Amino acid sequence: MKKKIINIAHRGFTQHFPDNTLEAFSAALELGVDGIEFDVQETADGEFFIFHDDVIDGKPIASILADEMQGIRLQGKYRIPSLEETLKLLGYRLILLIELKQVKDVHK
């Protein structure tokens, strides 16, 4: 039996883009990776966003509303994507390794 090495982009292609951004995920897709790993955080109003750390700009993500998350820019220009945006981009084209970080309810 021949074994295949699976190439997983950890938080996307982060050599040129911030972790867990749509740009990093798109670049990884262009490279032809087999899968992408990303992190999910839940906001105070129960929306899901892709971000590794539990805190951004000194505030716990669990205390931030979705509207506020949508206004945050990484490195002054990169948006923090929602889970919905991320799944629309990646779809069923590759393996998704989703790490649930500070998530209270997945039954939404």
Question: Helices and strands in order, then pairings?
Answer:
Layout: E1 8-10, H1 22-31, E2 35-42, E3 48-50, E4 55-56, E5 59-60, H2 66-71, E6 73-74, E7 78-79, H3 83-90, E8 95-100
Parallel strand pairs: 1-2, 2-8
Antiparallel strand pairs: 2-3, 4-5, 6-7
Helix pairs in contact: 1-3
Overview of this structure, please?
By secondary structure, this protein is an alpha/beta fold. It is built from three helices and eight strands; from the N terminus they run βαββββαββαβ. The strands form three sheets. Strands 1, 2, 3 and 8 form a four-stranded mixed sheet that branches. It has a two-stranded antiparallel ribbon with strand order 4-5. A two-stranded antiparallel ribbon has the order 6-7. Strand 2 (35-42) and strand 3 form a beta hairpin. Helix 1 runs parallel beside helix 3. The longest helix has 10 residues, at 22-31. It is globular.
Outline of the structure:
With 108 residues, the chain is an alpha/beta fold. Helices cover 22% and strands 26% of the residues. Helix 1 runs parallel beside helix 3.
Alpha-carbon distance between the two ends? 41 Å
The oligomeric state of the chains shown is: single chain
Order of secondary-structure elements:
EHEEEEHEEHE
Structural class: alpha/beta
Low-confidence segments = none
Number of strands: 8
- β-strand percent reads 25-35%
Mean pLDDT: 92
Helix content bin: 10-25%
What's the shape?
globular
What is the number of helices? 3
From the alpha-carbon coordinates, what is the Rg to the nearest angstrom?
14 Å
**What summary fits the major beta sheet?**
4 strands, mixed
